[in-house]
Specification:
Length: about 900
Amino acid sequence: MRELWWILLLLLRRPEEACGSGVVFTKHPTNQTVSQGNEVRLGCAVEGVNEPDIFWMKDGEKLYSTDQVFLTLGDQHLETSHSVKSVQQQDAGQYWCEVEFHGLNFSSQRAWITVEGVPHFLQEPQDVATLPDAPFNLTCAAVGPPEPVEVLWWLGGVQEGEPRASPSVLHVAGVNSSVKFYCEAKNTRGISVSRTGTVHIKVLPAAPFGLQVIRMNYNNVTLSWKPGFSGYSELATCNVQVSRRSVRRSDLPPQTVVVPPHLLELSGLRSHSNYSARVSCVNEVGASPFSSWLHFTTPESVPSAAPMNLSFQLSEQQLHLTWDQLQESQLQGRLVSYKLQWTLAGELQEPLLYKENWAELPGGARFFNASFQVSACTLVGCGPSSPPVLVLPASVQVQVPRSHMWVGLLLGLLGATVVGLLLTVVAQRRGKETQFGSVFKSPGPDSSVSFTAARSFSRNVSDQHESTLDSLGINDELKNKLQDVLIPERLLTLGHMLGKGEFGSVREALLKTDDSSIQKVAVKVLKSDITSSGDIEQCLKEAAYMKDFHHPNVIQLIGVSLHRRPGQRLPIPMVVLPFMKHGDLHTFLLLSRLGEQPFELSLHTLLRFMLDVSRGMDYLSSRNIIHRDLAARNCMLDENMTVCVADFGLSKKIYSGDYYRQGSVSKLPVKWIALESLADNVYTTQSDVWAFGVTMWEIMTRGQTPYPGVENSEIYEFLIKGERLKKPPDCRDDIYEIMHSCWSPVPKCRPSFQLLVSQLEALWLSVSPAPPTKEPLLYVNLEGEEGDPSMGAGGVAGARAPLPEEEQQDEEAAASSWSVPWQRCVEDEEKDWLIMASGAALAIGGDYRYIIGPCGAPEEDGEGEEGRRGELMRDEEDVINV
């Protein structure tokens, strides 16, 4: 309490009296007026404190000056000064000194430093954009001291009028060409000259560029473009022209877009159709020229109509069915097959697939009273079915009176009952029943014929209970993030395996959407023998990260599904992702060198790959996401040859070949990890930049293993000595300089992803696409059936790999200059049964255990494919166990 009264007493007394008990200012700074460039010194003396903490203030801010000097005047009596050797206008202001004592600050009297010199500008004239001969104003303001200050204008090198008092506004009646201007400010000390401004004449904008498709589905396409030179006038709108290329060109209504952003979503397009688009932007003056035409093809869809006029001819030997073919506009894709569905005695039979619009079925009598429907199928799925047609003999149709039709129906029911009884007797004599199929044993010495159905997730199983996120035992925060992307298991049909590893696999799948259309996807499935909630939670964290990603170079999450396992407490999580048509980038690069038919990748294409990865990583880093596992194997190629960054966590479990195991718990991709991460296990965006440099090296070497000849256990010692990856053969110096800058030992000295994007964009634009070679460029079609040598780890569908955007030609040229390195087995043209690829069979639906594979043998589970792919993926063993 005493201390509080003492402080209040000090505050109520005059500063000199308050300081009498401890702090007394014996000298105060005084007002000074100096000329610009001269020296000025302020003084302040304090008595009554040992070694006081004296500091100077200017306009309320503390000064940190190296010119402050302290002089001892006596016992507990010090003098300090603050000096400025060459005073400038920014040094003018109010100064005082302060002393801190017993937690209180005591201030001296305040003094002003006034700087006299040539005028300094408070407002300099700015650039002007105007229409020809339109009036405008220019403003210039300057002050002293000393005052007054006069302003003189110069326009186009000619003096405008007489000097006038500051501030000054110059009214210009108008100009019709670009001119320079500035103002002069004058007082008794001299003249100051402002910056030189420019009057720009507004003109038409330049044509937009970089028109591209960034998102596409069956009938919706999103276009983006970059504006050209604005013509010194802000762009207000852009006009987009779209036409459909068919036998006769058809122009769609033009669309006007308010910009920015420079995006347009086109809806209501036809599936599997060729379109062209171009864009023009508008400013105050008018519209720019149009950009170059962009040609694109919308994806396939299921047919929109059913085949018409299904009819039959029935004889004792066979049943002959015919129907009309669909028109191209109704097909909405490339015809894969016609699916013939039929029922006998009220029971649905196995569907039949045909290439042509007719079918011949042997044994006509067995189809008596059967009902048939036909639908057309593309790679995406099957369209609607035709009205059912009931098969009856012609004699029955003509001769039997309508009043006795019930006799035929009763006979049909009786026959169905007899057949059912016979099937029941046969079923009771089966030797063995399994969960997915049966084994039939013969009593004689002949070898038995056995069959086991492939495992599948059928959406037709009625007794399968849907799993929920509550059954996983994960934390509530992760559960809430994934709730709105949960996909019921019944909507997924899993196909052949695309890749597998230590903890899971990636499978091709078909997803039935809300509008009953079919979408091809890729599904990451955790291994069925993993029962730990921690492993399941780690898998789902990747999905949670990807939920909010929206960027053309970052893979997007479609959803999460859960597979219920009989007798198991925890379901298997399945992460549903877009289907990447051309697989992972590392396999693609390896195939360009080591495939059965190597093909050339131009420098323009390789730079585009690097640019795509850098754009994706720039997006992730802007969202404070650290990837920790960037490598070519974790980048995917979509149908447009665009690279997408993928695998935010699960990849280190799927791909085990590039990891260095620490102990027996974790694996690390040591040849991609930054020096500080190896030393301290610290991961930042800068460590991702290091991995991006290694990924650039992978791209330039077409998939070679980094640090050839250096063991994983030796990498740290190799890097700490200053060694780095060598420049690849035929690599330009400017490209190697960019990747080498990513490997600086000091993380802060590495470039940001934003800078890498700008550097690679400049390089990519400077490199023209290579002219066509005499030999056609062979791009890899990684789509295939199980066992297809062309199959990559990413899995694909389609008959050919499209040209990269920068090398696209028109369709006719592309058809003649591109082909697939590995051809499928030739189908037997004499067979009327459709020989189906596994992807198409899944799209069509039904039980395809009996469909013959593309080479005439039943399809396998992909083990042969895995072995062949392993030979390509592992050109060097890159794993060491410690």
